Structure formats: structure tokens, C-alpha cells
């Protein structure tokens, strides 16, 4: 039971680390460039996370199919 709890905590920790690695650069780059160039508002962390997930869904790595 203790091993299962540690495994679940590790998975949650990995998800948090991946979310920060995905969202933080997007947020920083957006807030650094876009408001000055296009007069759009700054975004927060969760908006940056949603934006990076949306871009990953739309422009994800194409699969390699061998024919």
C-alpha cells in the first residue's frame, strides 16, 4: 500500500514538473514580446499551459508510418 502511494505521488510530481516546463517558457516569451508588438494583454501561467497544450494538439509531431 505504501509503494502504491509513493508511485502515485511520483506520477503527480512528474505531471507538475512537465506542466511547468511546458508553460513557463510560453508565458515568459508571450509576456515579453506580444504585448509590445500587438497590444494584446499578458497571460498567466494557466493560460500559457492551455496555449501550449492546444499548440501540441494542433501542431504535434507527425507520426512516421512505414509503407
What can you tell me about this protein's structure?
Helices cover 76% and strands 0% of the residues. The protein has 67 residues and is an all-alpha fold. The chain has a domain at 16-52. Helix 1 crosses helix 2. The relative contact order is 0.11. The model has no long low-confidence stretch (mean pLDDT 91).
Observed structural traits:
67 residues; 0% strand; mainly alpha
Radius of gyration: 17 Å
Residue runs with pLDDT of under 50 for 5 or more positions: none
What is the 3D shape?
A: flat
Q: What value does the average pLDDT take? A: 91
Number-wise, the strands total 0
Structural class: mainly alpha
Number of helical runs? 2
Helix content: over 70%
Element string (H = helix, E = strand): HH
N-to-C CA distance: 46 Å
Main sheet record: none
Strand share of the residues?
under 5%
Q: What's the short version?
A:
The chain is mainly alpha-helical.
Topology (elements, then pairings):
Elements: H1 2-38, H2 45-58
Amino acid at each position: 500500500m505504501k509503494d502504491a502511494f509513493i508511485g502515485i505521488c511520483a506520477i503527480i510530481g512528474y505531471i507538475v514538473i512537465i506542466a511547468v516546463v511546458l508553460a513557463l517558457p510560453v508565458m515568459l516569451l508571450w509576456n515579453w514580446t506580444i504585448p509590445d508588438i500587438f497590444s494584446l494583454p499578458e497571460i498567466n501561467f494557466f493560460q500559457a499551459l492551455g496555449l501550449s497544450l492546444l499548440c501540441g494538439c494542433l501542431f504535434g509531431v507527425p507520426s512516421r508510418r512505414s509503407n
